[in-house]
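Need a sequence for this fold. Nothing fancy.
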């Protein structure tokens, strides 16, 4: 995963993020699976 510095904060975040729209109308289990997959791929920007 490629990471970038977030503005002037010094925080290193993944170049790919995940937003809340993907969780709309999904079950808890589906949302949990999406988050687990994102974490396993190195995504840390939610």
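Here you go.
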């Amino acid at each position: 995963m490629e990471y970038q510095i977030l503005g002037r904060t010094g925080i290193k975040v993944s170049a790919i993020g995940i937003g809340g729209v993907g969780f709309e109308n999904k079950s808890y289990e589906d949302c949990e699976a999406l988050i687990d997959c994102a974490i396993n791929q190195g995504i840390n920007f939610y």
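For context: DSSP finds one helix and two strands in the chain.
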